[in-house]
Amino acid sequence: MAVLDVTDIRKRFGQTEVLRGISFSLEKGQVLSVIGSSGSGKTTLLRCLNFLETPDAGAIAVNGETLFDAAAPAALKEAEIRRRRLHFGLVFQSFNLFPQYTALENVTLAGKLLARQSPDFRDRKKETLSRIDAEGRDLLTQMGLADRMGNYPHQLSGGQQQRVAIARALALKPDILCFDEPTSALDPELTREVLRVIRSLAEKRTTMIIVTHEMDFARDVSSRVLFMDGGQAVEEGPPEQVLSAPVQERTRRFLDSYTTRRP
Ligand SMILES: Nc1ncnc2c1ncn2[C@@H]1O[C@H](COP(=O)(O)OP(=O)(O)O)[C@@H](O)[C@H]1O
Ligand SMILES: [Mg+2]
């Protein structure tokens, strides 16, 4: 069974139809890279999956459970929306860490807030909080940040901050981890360290959707590649097909312009 089924998602902002019927599914452990020029709707797609935007049409199902269906709108309580959002983790281009919290606090904050809402929190407060801290330390260690747990974001490089953001997204154990151009704010060296972490997550069979401009990385790490243009899924398939032998003229043109633009 697919972890994620996206069916005919559409979204418009005013007169502009930004997503014009996107469909795909993702199996557990697969990595889908989404490529396409700026303005093609990649960020909007991730925001729809994470319920930061409401699609105008289409459906989203995770592990067979329909989380969103525009044809059957449900009036959801805040708590239910939050629960649905937990299926997805999102790592932004610009890290978005809380500046007033340490790396470890950034990673554990949401889990602690969530635990506090549990009815038996009072009885198990101490063990719950220390378990969340231990998991947070473990994640930061996996990100290569064992010696940075107590640092504030301003004391960390961009690459380190982004790795904290990845640990934070993993802390809530999402079914699908989404990245929106995770390295585009980073210089080449810091890009490499973040890509290394994402690659190690792929090796651990973490289900991921990665919006990226790093074509070599996409080729290397993805199970499949989706090329978007003008809000449409133009072509989707194994990386060697989409990136090396694309069927669609639009994909070819994008890849050509991309290679000529590169130094
Ligand atoms: N909140 C919004 N209001 C109006 N237009 C938007 C909004 N968000 C995105 N857009 C427009 O939607 C299109 C796709 O944007 P986006 O999803 O950010 O593309 P990408 O991530 O591929 O660059 C762009 O034309 C953008 O200007
Ligand atoms: Mg974008």
Task: Describe the 3D structure.
By secondary structure, the protein is of the alpha/beta class. It has nine helices and ten strands. The chain has helices at 42-49, 78-85, 103-116, 125-142, 158-171, 188-203, 215-221, 239-244, 249-261, and strands at 4-13, 16-26, 31-35, 57-62, 65-69, 88-91, 176-180, 208-211, 224-229, 232-237. A six-stranded mixed β-sheet has the order 6-7-8-3-9-10, sandwiched between helices. Helix 3 (103-116) runs antiparallel to helix 4. The longest helix is centred in the middle third of the chain and has 18 residues, at 125-142. The chain is globular and about 60 Å long. The mean pLDDT is 94.
Fold topology:
Layout: E1 4-13, E2 16-26, E3 31-35, H1 42-49, E4 57-62, E5 65-69, H2 78-85, E6 88-91, H3 103-116, H4 125-142, H5 158-171, E7 176-180, H6 188-203, E8 208-211, H7 215-221, E9 224-229, E10 232-237, H8 239-244, H9 249-261
Helix pairs in contact: 3-4, 3-5, 4-5, 5-6
The protein binds adenosine-5'-diphosphate and magnesium ion (MG).
Low-pLDDT stretches are none
Count every beta strand, where a strand is a DSSP E run of 2 or more residues: 10
CATH architectural name of the largest domain: 3-Layer(aba) Sandwich
Report the bound ligands by name, code or SMILES.
adenosine-5'-diphosphate, magnesium ion
Relative strand content? 15-25%
Number of domains: 2
CATH topology of the largest domain: Rossmann fold
Number of helices: 9
Query: In the CATH hierarchy, what is the class of the largest domain?
Result: Alpha Beta
> What spatial order of strands do you see in the largest sheet?
6-7-8-3-9-10
Shape: globular
CATH superfamily of the largest domain: P-loop containing nucleotide triphosphate hydrolases
Q: How much is the radius of gyration in Å?
A: 19 Å
Q: Could you give the order of the helices and strands?
A: EEEHEEHEHHHEHEHEEHH
Q: Quickly give the structural class.
A: alpha/beta
Q: What can be said about the biggest beta sheet? A: 6 strands, mixed
Q: Span between N and C termini?
A: 42 Å
**What is the typical, i.e. mean, pLDDT?**
94
Fraction of residues in helices? 25-40%
